[in-house]
Design brief:
Elements lengths: L2 E5 L23 E9 L2 E8 H11 L4 E5 L4 H12 L8 E2 L20 H11 L6 E5 L7 H8 L4 E4 L9 H10 L2
Parallel strand pairs: 1-4, 1-6, 4-5, 6-7
Antiparallel strand pairs: 2-3
Length: 181
């Protein structure tokens, strides 16, 4: 049985906050702030908790846990952003690919079409073993009715949808730790 963690970046690992999230969260240690190459001549600021990344590294190194990059960062996430923040992903880490737009969101909402991350997850899920479990980390899940329905209709999927200005909290990672034991 594999325990998959599908991880978005912005709003999950990268706290999208105009103020230092350290003042707003329960991660009291040091926070990193870097400007990274986003590709296509664009640079982006990223902000993360070193404690959170250390805890996440411990979780994803557990036996039978496999991390999947599910972000518009795609390969840039795996090859640039995660190494920058110190998240250690194996070389064979799966990266979900958005078919239409390299950056930005596909239409979301109950009547606006499909969300590429949900479409990719559904496809992956359809070919997974029935004993596998999934933890989906994405700040946008709570905004997409179809994603909420998909998760709620399945016992082997747990969604963690943090506030984008805070990213993952200690409580989120405690849950993730229990789900991957």
């Amino acid at each position: 049985m594999t325990k998959y963690i599908l991880g978005d970046i912005d709003g999950v690992f990268n706290a999208l906050s105009p103020v230092n999230p350290k003042d707003l969260t329960d991660w009291l240690g040091t926070w990193g702030l870097e400007v990274v190459d986003g590709g296509a001549g664009k640079s982006y600021s990223i902000r993360w908790s070193h404690e959170m990344v250390e805890e996440m590294n411990r979780i994803i190194s557990k036996p039978d846990v496999q991390f999947i990059v599910a972000s518009t960062w795609q390969d840039q996430g795996k090859n640039v952003l995660f190494p920058t923040i110190g998240l250690h992903l194996p070389e064979d880490t799966i990266v979900f690919k958005e078919a239409t737009v390299a950056w930005g969101y596909s239409p979301m909402g109950s009547n606006l079409g499909s969300w590429w991350k949900l479409d990719e997850f559904k496809e992956f899920y359809a070919h997974s073993d029935s004993e596998d479990s999934f933890i989906w980390l994405d700040d946008d899940i709570k905004k997409v009715v179809q994603a909420i329905q998909f998760v709620n209709e399945r016992d082997n999927i747990t969604a963690i949808s943090p506030f984008q200005s805070l990213g993952l909290t200690r409580e989120d990672l405690e849950l993730l730790d229990r789900l991957t034991d």
